[in-house]
Amino acid sequence: MLYRKLDEITGLFGTRLTFLKSELRIETPNDLLEHYPFRYVDRSVVAQVADATEPGEYYQLEGRIENFVEEGEGAAKRIRSRFSDESGSIELVWFKGIRWLKTSLKPGVRYSLYGKLTSFKGALNMVHPELDPVEKVANPLGGLQPVYSTTEKLSKTGLNSKGIERVITSIVSRHAFQLAETLPEDLRAELKLIGKTEAMRAIHVPRDARELQQAQRRLKFEELFFIQMELCIRKEMREKSIQGFSFDRVGEYFHAFYEKCLPFELTGAQKRVIKEIRADMVGGKHMNRLLQGDVGSGKTIVAALSALIAIDNGFQATLVAPTEILAQQHYLSLKELLAPIGVEVALLTGSTRKAQRRVQFEALAGGTIHLLIGTHAVLEDPVVFKNLGLAIIDEQHRFGVAQRARLWKKNLKPPHVLVMTATPIPRTLAMTLYGDLDVSVIDELPPGRKPIKTVHLFDKDRLRIFGFIKEQIALGRQVYVVYPLIEESSTLDLKDLMDGYESIARAFPIPDYQISIVHGRMKPKDKDFEMRRFAKGETQILVATTVIEVGVNVPNASVMVIESAQRFGLSQLHQLRGRVGRGADQSFCILATDAKLSSEARMRMRTMVETNDGFRIAEVDLELRGPGDLMGTQQSGTLDLKIANLATDSKVLYFARQAALSI
Ligand code: ADP
Ligand code: MG
Predict the structure, then answer these.
(1) Average of pLDDT values for 414-440?
(2) DSSP character for 260?
(3) Ligand (nearest to CA of 295)
(4) Do 118 and 125 form a contact (C-beta atoms < 8 A)?
(5) Using a 6 Å cutoff on CB, does residue 286 contact ligand 1?
(6) Is the peptide bond before 511 cis (omega within 30 degrees of 0)?
(7) How many angstroms separate the CA atoms of 38 and 60, rounded?
(8) 99: closest CA among 182, 178, 156, 32?
(9) How far is the CA of 150 from the CAs of 20, 70, 586, in angstroms?
(10) How far apart are the C-alpha atoms of 201 and 42, rounded to whole Å?
(11) Lowest CB count within 10 Å: 25, 95, 249, 611, which one?
């Protein structure tokens, strides 16, 4: 029956069909069936208004609404009402669909309400709750009622959640409803997965929670299984079709560096990943590898050694960083490391002067530059290498897939690609997103590092924080104080930064203390100057916006104070904290926030205080924000999952991947 058209199977026509397509991208019966409920309401539980006290919780209530009150003008327009039962009353607020509300909801009618309780300026209310006349919600099948996403336009044609439910229920409850099985019989038997037809019915019309859970498990598995199959196939095709440069020599540069210039003994993990990288490049296969390592785990040296393998084979290498400061820092440290063995390192960023650029382009095309370090400027068209053999991309999460592709175009044959990320991507996400990439993990920190101690303090603790900073500076340490910078409101943020700077300058007066300040509005040259003063130890405190977030390395800095920490995401907080704890001294991170925090912000602070483990933090981040946000919108398209949830379904994903691999 799936082969029939949507109109035949649903009996829908006209605007409803058109809107299904334009609003929800539902064009086929299959699309409709895969428009899974995003939630189920347990209609068997009705709370009393007086018991609805926990912000963030969903409640089902029964009662009546009062007359609507309109407030505000234009975009600020909103409508309010109160909802009451015998036990009490609560405020309701709407910002949209005002006309529709006034015509379809009637004061005095007994409604069943479902919504999330929110707390606004200390008062409890519900924003855009669902309201249905009580007699309409009675569900003869049992407690669980599916809730479907829909849009205002569709709702107006009668296809609100309830309308969609009716259409889908009528299809899946037909006696003749039958779908082709998509999973092999033995696989289903082995993993105890229910059949496709049964699962599809139960996901839309569950008889009870157990049946629903079985249906979800089966459909999630199917979804992830096919993605994994595709990734496995893609990887195999890439390996077959793309020949990589074969770097069969591990030669003079590598050995000379390893024996004479290596500033420390490599950790076991560093040695292991260098072996993995070498094995890829030696074999003539095309390397496409993700190198994951927590902040401070020592990825830079791995990058340097990988570059030397390319250079030993007569090729050039490039290291691309997401920010100018980071590119510069890489340049300075790698130049110093590699100069003794005669490797030519150059820096190309947006602020490299024209005249110098011309000289560089020539040297690149002529092959006298061995290693080019830079920002995205490296990806721009006029940059031509003689023979680029390896492209290393640092802090990958800032780089889109498209930018990576541009690197490929720089050669006839694509260079080997090593993507380094300090934001540990949870295993589940890495498998799904990068199933066609090989992954190396540095899971060991250099010896002698002490775990950073993290505390969460409030703005009122300011004097204590200053006192602590003084103690640390007296011990010879340096301190970062970081302010958030969100681009859209950067004027305000800049003011916060300047106010903060002034109060710090008052508490830490010259000549006893020297303070650096760095922010996004400064010229690169000035930023660089200040960063260097701090790196050299000439200033004790660096007041900055998040420009220092990635990669900056000042081992003597032992205190990181993050102001308005509630405005940062978890991965950013972890990155920032990673700026300290790089030397042998005990390091500290102080998260300063307002006294009042959302429950999510509280969770972020608690996580930071509890753990230094980047993987654990990434997992909590994934749970709190969802995978789309984590990867930036550019890649969220890859994750257009209909039912599976990467944050919570790692077990199902694991089985799906194993099954795909074995096939
Ligand atoms: P990240 O992985 O965050 O890029 P870096 O490469 O910047 O880390 O390394 C962090 C610090 O650790 C640097 O100061 C670096 O010199 C040092 N380091 C790296 N590897 C080792 C090691 N095996 N032993 C001691 N120190 C190391
Ligand atoms: Mg780094």
Answers:
(1) 73
(2) I
(3) 1
(4) yes
(5) no
(6) yes
(7) 17
(8) 156
(9) 9, 25, 53
(10) 18
(11) 25
- Map tokens 């390893």 to a residue: 258
Residue closest via CA to ligand 1's atom 23 equals 266
Cα within 13 Å of Cα(532), Cβ side: 9
For 78-104, write each residue's pLDDT tens digit: 899 999 999 999 999 998 777 888 888
pLDDT band of 479, cuts 50, 70, 90: very high
**CB 423 near ligand 1, within 6 Å:** no
Using CA of residue 48, residue 53, residue 56, residue 57, what is the dihedral sign?
negative
Ligand nearest, relative to CA of residue 583: 1
| Residue keyed to tokens 């260097």 | 532
Contact in structure between 422 and 274 (CB atoms under 8 Å): no
8 Å CB contact between 649 and 428: yes
Does residue 242 surpass a pLDDT of 90? no
Is the Cβ–Cβ distance between 95 and 114 less than 8 Å? no
Nearest alpha carbon to residue 647 among 615, 624, 616: 624
pLDDT, tens digit, for every residue of 157-196?
989 888 999 999 999 999 889 999 999 999 999 999 999 9
The DSSP bridge pattern shows strands 371-374 and 345-348 to be parallel
**pTM of this prediction?**
0.64
Answer yes or no: is the C-beta of 199 below 6 A from any ligand 1 atom.
Answer: no
What residues does 562 pair with on adjacent strands? 482, 591
Contact 369, 316 (CB under 8 A): yes
575 CB less than 6 Å from ligand 1?
Answer: no
